Amino acid sequence: MSVVIIDYGSGNLRSAAKAFERAVAEAGSTETVTVTADPKAVAGAGRVVLPGVGAFGDCMGGLAALPGMLEALDGAVIRGGKPFLGICVGMELMAEVGREHGDHAGLGWIPGEVAALAPADAALKIPHMGWNELAMAAPGHPVLAGIAPGAHAYFVHSYAFVCADSAHVLATVEYGGPVTAAVGRDNMIGTQFHPEKSQATGLKLITNFLGWRP
Hints:
4-stranded mixed sheet
Protein backbone atom coordinates (compact mmCIF):
# COMPACT_ATOMS: atom_id res chain seq x y z
CA MET A 1 0.00 0.00 0.00
CA SER A 2 1.02 3.61 -0.44
CA VAL A 3 1.25 6.28 2.22
CA VAL A 4 0.42 9.63 0.66
CA ILE A 5 1.57 12.85 2.34
CA ILE A 6 -0.38 15.76 0.89
CA ASP A 7 1.63 18.70 -0.41
CA TYR A 8 -0.52 21.83 -0.35
CA GLY A 9 2.21 24.33 0.43
CA SER A 10 1.70 24.26 4.20
CA GLY A 11 3.67 21.39 5.66
CA ASN A 12 7.09 20.36 6.88
CA LEU A 13 7.11 17.81 4.10
CA ARG A 14 10.74 16.74 4.04
CA SER A 15 10.85 15.95 7.76
CA ALA A 16 7.51 14.16 7.64
CA ALA A 17 8.49 12.08 4.62
CA LYS A 18 11.84 11.11 6.16
CA ALA A 19 10.16 10.06 9.40
CA PHE A 20 7.66 7.87 7.54
CA GLU A 21 10.37 6.39 5.33
CA ARG A 22 12.40 5.51 8.43
CA ALA A 23 9.39 3.88 10.10
CA VAL A 24 8.64 1.87 6.95
CA ALA A 25 12.27 0.73 6.69
CA GLU A 26 12.55 -0.23 10.37
CA ALA A 27 9.28 -2.16 10.21
CA GLY A 28 10.42 -4.02 7.10
CA SER A 29 7.23 -2.88 5.40
CA THR A 30 6.64 -2.84 1.67
CA GLU A 31 4.59 0.35 1.85
CA THR A 32 5.73 3.29 -0.25
CA VAL A 33 5.78 6.91 0.92
CA THR A 34 4.80 9.58 -1.60
CA VAL A 35 4.60 13.36 -1.23
CA THR A 36 2.09 14.69 -3.73
CA ALA A 37 -0.41 17.39 -4.63
CA ASP A 38 -2.26 15.02 -6.99
CA PRO A 39 -5.81 14.21 -5.86
CA LYS A 40 -5.70 10.99 -7.91
CA ALA A 41 -2.83 9.78 -5.74
CA VAL A 42 -4.88 10.57 -2.63
CA ALA A 43 -7.86 8.68 -4.06
CA GLY A 44 -5.65 5.64 -4.65
CA ALA A 45 -3.70 5.81 -1.38
CA GLY A 46 -3.72 3.16 1.30
CA ARG A 47 -3.11 5.77 4.01
CA VAL A 48 -3.38 9.55 3.97
CA VAL A 49 -1.29 12.06 5.94
CA LEU A 50 -2.11 15.77 6.11
CA PRO A 51 0.66 17.89 7.64
CA GLY A 52 0.30 21.59 8.28
CA VAL A 53 2.25 24.64 9.37
CA GLY A 54 0.80 28.16 9.42
CA ALA A 55 -2.54 29.85 9.95
CA PHE A 56 -5.76 27.79 9.83
CA GLY A 57 -7.43 29.88 7.11
CA ASP A 58 -4.35 29.95 4.89
CA CYS A 59 -3.90 26.19 5.20
CA MET A 60 -7.54 25.46 4.45
CA GLY A 61 -7.37 27.83 1.51
CA GLY A 62 -4.25 26.12 0.17
CA LEU A 63 -5.91 22.73 0.42
CA ALA A 64 -9.08 23.95 -1.30
CA ALA A 65 -7.01 25.58 -4.06
CA LEU A 66 -5.84 22.18 -5.32
CA PRO A 67 -8.48 21.15 -7.89
CA GLY A 68 -10.30 18.02 -6.77
CA MET A 69 -8.35 17.62 -3.51
CA LEU A 70 -11.24 18.15 -1.08
CA GLU A 71 -13.35 15.70 -3.05
CA ALA A 72 -10.49 13.18 -3.11
CA LEU A 73 -10.01 13.52 0.66
CA ASP A 74 -13.71 13.02 1.29
CA GLY A 75 -13.78 9.99 -0.97
CA ALA A 76 -10.68 8.37 0.53
CA VAL A 77 -11.16 9.17 4.21
CA ILE A 78 -14.89 9.63 4.84
CA ARG A 79 -16.44 7.35 2.24
CA GLY A 80 -13.48 5.03 1.74
CA GLY A 81 -12.52 4.64 5.40
CA LYS A 82 -8.79 4.82 4.74
CA PRO A 83 -6.54 5.53 7.75
CA PHE A 84 -5.89 9.26 8.08
CA LEU A 85 -3.35 11.20 10.16
CA GLY A 86 -3.48 14.98 10.54
CA ILE A 87 -0.39 16.70 11.95
CA CYS A 88 -0.47 20.09 13.73
CA VAL A 89 -2.60 22.38 11.52
CA GLY A 90 -3.45 19.26 9.51
CA MET A 91 -5.14 18.01 12.68
CA GLU A 92 -6.80 21.37 13.31
CA LEU A 93 -8.37 21.32 9.84
CA MET A 94 -10.41 18.29 10.94
CA ALA A 95 -12.51 20.69 13.06
CA GLU A 96 -15.69 22.42 11.99
CA VAL A 97 -14.25 25.91 12.32
CA GLY A 98 -10.98 27.69 13.08
CA ARG A 99 -11.01 31.03 14.93
CA GLU A 100 -7.57 32.26 13.83
CA HIS A 101 -7.79 35.73 12.20
CA GLY A 102 -11.55 35.41 11.81
CA ASP A 103 -13.75 32.35 11.43
CA HIS A 104 -12.83 29.81 8.75
CA ALA A 105 -14.68 26.61 7.92
CA GLY A 106 -12.69 23.41 8.37
CA LEU A 107 -13.25 19.91 7.02
CA GLY A 108 -15.87 19.27 9.70
CA TRP A 109 -14.78 15.70 10.37
CA ILE A 110 -14.69 16.05 14.16
CA PRO A 111 -17.17 18.39 15.90
CA GLY A 112 -15.51 21.33 17.59
CA GLU A 113 -13.51 24.48 17.02
CA VAL A 114 -9.88 25.58 16.95
CA ALA A 115 -9.43 28.45 19.41
CA ALA A 116 -6.54 30.52 20.69
CA LEU A 117 -4.53 29.12 23.57
CA ALA A 118 -5.41 30.88 26.83
CA PRO A 119 -3.23 29.41 29.60
CA ALA A 120 -4.29 30.20 33.14
CA ASP A 121 -0.69 31.11 33.95
CA ALA A 122 0.01 34.45 32.26
CA ALA A 123 3.75 33.73 32.43
CA LEU A 124 3.39 30.96 29.86
CA LYS A 125 4.37 32.19 26.43
CA ILE A 126 2.40 31.91 23.22
CA PRO A 127 3.13 30.06 21.00
CA HIS A 128 3.44 26.93 23.08
CA MET A 129 6.79 25.70 21.80
CA GLY A 130 9.01 22.82 22.83
CA TRP A 131 8.85 19.45 24.58
CA ASN A 132 5.93 18.57 26.84
CA GLU A 133 4.54 15.45 28.46
CA LEU A 134 1.53 13.68 27.03
CA ALA A 135 -1.38 12.58 29.20
CA MET A 136 -3.40 9.78 27.63
CA ALA A 137 -7.14 10.27 27.64
CA ALA A 138 -7.65 7.09 25.64
CA PRO A 139 -4.66 4.80 26.21
CA GLY A 140 -6.39 1.95 24.41
CA HIS A 141 -6.19 3.61 20.97
CA PRO A 142 -4.05 1.46 18.64
CA VAL A 143 -2.07 4.43 17.27
CA LEU A 144 -1.06 5.40 20.82
CA ALA A 145 -0.19 1.85 21.89
CA GLY A 146 3.18 1.62 23.61
CA ILE A 147 3.41 5.36 24.24
CA ALA A 148 3.54 5.73 28.00
CA PRO A 149 1.81 8.52 29.91
CA GLY A 150 4.39 11.24 30.38
CA ALA A 151 6.12 10.53 27.08
CA HIS A 152 7.53 13.70 25.58
CA ALA A 153 6.40 15.19 22.27
CA TYR A 154 7.35 18.36 20.42
CA PHE A 155 4.79 21.16 20.07
CA VAL A 156 4.72 24.46 18.15
CA HIS A 157 1.27 26.09 18.16
CA SER A 158 -0.78 29.08 19.27
CA TYR A 159 -4.22 27.53 18.76
CA ALA A 160 -5.76 24.27 19.93
CA PHE A 161 -8.64 21.93 19.11
CA VAL A 162 -11.61 22.25 21.48
CA CYS A 163 -13.67 19.12 20.83
CA ALA A 164 -17.44 19.26 21.22
CA ASP A 165 -17.36 15.65 22.45
CA SER A 166 -14.64 14.70 24.94
CA ALA A 167 -14.75 11.15 23.59
CA HIS A 168 -12.82 12.43 20.58
CA VAL A 169 -9.90 13.61 22.74
CA LEU A 170 -7.22 10.91 22.78
CA ALA A 171 -4.45 12.77 24.61
CA THR A 172 -3.82 16.11 26.30
CA VAL A 173 -0.86 18.22 27.34
CA GLU A 174 -0.66 20.54 30.32
CA TYR A 175 -0.04 24.18 29.40
CA GLY A 176 -1.77 26.40 31.92
CA GLY A 177 -4.59 23.87 31.86
CA PRO A 178 -5.25 20.77 29.74
CA VAL A 179 -4.81 21.30 25.99
CA THR A 180 -5.83 18.79 23.34
CA ALA A 181 -2.77 16.94 22.03
CA ALA A 182 -4.47 14.23 19.94
CA VAL A 183 -7.96 13.67 18.56
CA GLY A 184 -9.60 10.80 16.76
CA ARG A 185 -12.68 8.99 15.64
CA ASP A 186 -13.31 6.01 13.37
CA ASN A 187 -10.42 5.82 10.84
CA MET A 188 -9.10 9.31 11.63
CA ILE A 189 -6.50 10.53 14.11
CA GLY A 190 -4.73 13.86 14.50
CA THR A 191 -1.88 15.17 16.65
CA GLN A 192 -1.25 18.75 17.67
CA PHE A 193 2.38 17.82 18.25
CA HIS A 194 4.81 16.94 15.47
CA PRO A 195 5.54 13.19 15.44
CA GLU A 196 8.25 13.75 12.83
CA LYS A 197 10.11 15.91 15.39
CA SER A 198 9.24 13.89 18.49
CA GLN A 199 12.02 11.30 18.25
CA ALA A 200 11.13 7.93 19.85
CA THR A 201 7.57 8.97 20.74
CA GLY A 202 6.88 10.19 17.23
CA LEU A 203 8.48 7.18 15.54
CA LYS A 204 6.37 4.84 17.66
CA LEU A 205 3.19 6.71 16.72
CA ILE A 206 4.06 6.64 13.02
CA THR A 207 4.87 2.92 13.19
CA ASN A 208 1.55 2.28 14.92
CA PHE A 209 -0.26 4.31 12.27
CA LEU A 210 1.36 2.25 9.51
CA GLY A 211 0.02 -0.92 11.09
CA TRP A 212 -3.41 0.45 11.99
CA ARG A 213 -6.41 -1.38 10.56
CA PRO A 214 -9.43 0.68 11.72
